[in-house]
Each structure stands twice: as C-alpha cells, then as structure tokens.
Amino acid sequence: MAVACAFLIWGTLPLYMRALDSVSPVEIMVHRMVWACLFTFALLAFKRQLGNVIAVLRQPRAVAWLLASATMISLNWFIYVWAVAERQVVEASLGYFINPLVSVALGVLLLGEKLNRWQSLAVGFAVAGVIWLTLLVGRLPWIALVLAFSFAFYGFIRKRVAVDAITGLHVETLLLLPFAIAYLLWRGASGAFFSQGGAIGALLIGAGIFTAIPLMSFAFGVRRVSLSTVGVMQYLAPSLQLLTAVVLFAEPFVLQQGVGFGLIWIALAIYAFDGLSRHRRVAPVAVQCAEAVAPVKDAAARVE
Q1: What average pLDDT does this structure show over 227-247?
Q2: Three-state secondary structure along 83-138?
Q3: What's the structural domain count of the chain?
Q4: CB of 216 within 8 A of CB of 165?
Q5: Band of the pLDDT at 294, cuts 50, 70, 90?
Q6: Mind spelling out the 3-state secondary structure of the chain?
Q7: Mean pLDDT over residues 32-42, rounded?
Q8: Which residue range is the domain that position 135 belongs to?
Q9: How far apart are CA 200 and CA 101, in angstroms?
C-alpha cells in the first residue's frame, strides 16, 4: 500500500504543479527544498533520530556523496517542474518510463555488470524508441533524457551511502538549504510566497511535504513487498502522468509518437518479464537453502 501511495502521488504530481503555474520553476524547486528540509527535521525530531543526522555530517565521504545526490535530485525537480510549466508532460513521462533501463545501463558502464540476452534486447528496443522520437521531432528528447539520467544517477549515488531515507533526504536538503535561503532573501517580498496570496503560499509549503512523503512511503514499503512487485508498480507513475498530459492537459500525442513509446513499452515488458522470471527461479532456491540450514540450526541449539 505504501509503495502504491508513493507512485500515485508521483503520477498525479503534474496536477499539483499546474496549480503553481504562476510561480517560476526555480522558486518552486527552492520551496520544495526548504519545506522538505523542515518537514523531515520535524519527523526526525519526533522520532528522536536527529543524532543520525549528526552522525552522517561527521563523515566527509558520506557528505560528499549526499551533496552529489542532492545535486542530481535538484536537477530532476527543476526540469520536471519546468516541463509541466512548458506543457511537456508527455515527454516528462517518457523520462520515467526509460529510467529503469538507464539504471541498467549505469550498472553495466559503472559497475561492470553483465546483461543477459533479454536485458540486452530490452535496452536495444529502448534505444530504438529514443532514436525514433529524435528523428520524429528533429531533436533529442532532452527533457526525458535529463529526467531519466538524473534520477538514475540519484539512485546510483544513494546506494553508495548507508543512510535511511528520511535522514538521507534531510541531509540532502540541508546541504543545499543555504543556497535556497539566499535565493529567497534575494527575492524578498516580491517572491510568490508573499506576493501571490495565501493559497499559493500554502501550495508551496505543501510542495515540500508532497516531495518528502512519497520518498518515505517508497522507502517504507519497498522493504515489505517483493522487488518484482515494485518493478511492475513503478510504471504506474509515468502511466498516470501520460494520461494526465493527454486527457486533462490536451497535450498532443500522435500515432508517430505512439510508435516511439511503443518500442519503449516493449522494452519495459521484456525487462519486467526477465525480472519476474529470475525472481521465480531464485525464490525456490532460497526456500531450499533455508530448509537445508534449519536442521543444522536445530542441532546446534540442542547441543547448546
């Protein structure tokens, strides 16, 4: 339920961002950062876990990694908000469709991981889809690529730091907080928070909260459901974004675009099929190992 909640929030986020149409993308990003920082601080204080933040800040290597991840997620937030403001939600949704495949590519290029034939085929279909869309519009779908690569690098970097989701998000926003405050001071009373009324101010505060909640919900739920379930559910968010763009925002989506998206959807289907197949093969082996080890543990317990 928690994982589904996270993807539902991410999927309907364009509706929230469209309500902030009168605010510049930079200012929205800054407010998301500030209020997410305050919200996670309050949660950590309530849970009496502020000591975790101090422990992380005493590790220069961890701080460096989290500064890098903060840069990646800030870039992702900014481009996403800008895409909504510029009526490019269709292309933004494409970024999150191809994100899992970009993560696979990073594993190959940066970690030396090997692709099996199904994964290689999936990556091939995804590349073909991006090439088709590039030829169709005469340019790279840079919004989708920036969103996909920034979020993939964010996930890659966060895997390098042993820190829980709430503490990690708080430290990330805390590291960039001085820049955010400097920007808000520079804007002063002309900023949207003070000049555009209480409703906009409330939405800006809520933007930070709705930034933190799905990240924490995902971190909580991913430990309690199988990875194969998460792998399938992760396409809920971009699917909702695409439906929102076409049905509610009336963004164009022609047959030629459908061909490019279709190639990428085929890639995702192959990737999901491969992941489910490997999960089903591994699960029985894990059960057999557990059953084999159980008698040994029982014997050891009797000896003690």
Answers
A1: 77
A2: HHHCCCHHHHHHHHHHHHHHHHHHHHHHHCCCCCHHHHHHHHHHHHHHHHHHHHHC
A3: 1
A4: yes
A5: very low
A6: CHHHHHHHHHHHHHHHHHCCCCCCHHHHHHHHHHHHHHHHHHHHHHCCCHHHHHHHHCCHHHHHHHHHHHHHHHHHHHHHHHHHHCCCHHHHHHHHHHHHHHHHHHHHHHHCCCCCHHHHHHHHHHHHHHHHHHHHHCCCCHHHHHHHHHHHHHHHHHCCCCCCHHHHHHHHHHHHHHHHHHHHHHHHHHCHHHHCHHHHHHHHHHHHHHHHHHHHHHHHHCCCCCHHHHHHHCCHHHHHHHHHHHHHCCCCCCHHHHHHHHHHHHHHHHHHHHHHHHHHHHHHHHHHHHHHHHHHHHHHHHHC
A7: 94
A8: 2-303
A9: 37
For residue 76, give the nearest of 21, 24, 127, 145 by alpha carbon. Answer: 145
- The arithmetic mean of pLDDT across residues 74-92, rounded, is 92
Amino acid at 284: P
Q: How far apart are CA 39 and CA 252, in angstroms?
A: 37
pLDDT for position 265: 86
Rounded to the nearest 5°, which phi and psi values hold at 226? -70, 155
119: its two tokens: 């994964």
Which among 90, 234, 213 is positioned nearest to 151, based on CA atoms?
234
pLDDT confidence of 152, banded at 50, 70, 90?
A: confident
Q: Which range, of 26-30, 193-197, 296-300, averages the lowest pLDDT?
A: 296-300
Beta-carbon count within 10 A of 145 CB: 18
> Burial code of 37-49, b = ≥16 C-beta within 10 A, e = fewer?
bbbbbebbeeeee
pLDDT for 126 beyond 70: yes
Q: In the structure encoding, which two tokens stand for residue 225, read together?
A: 């459901």
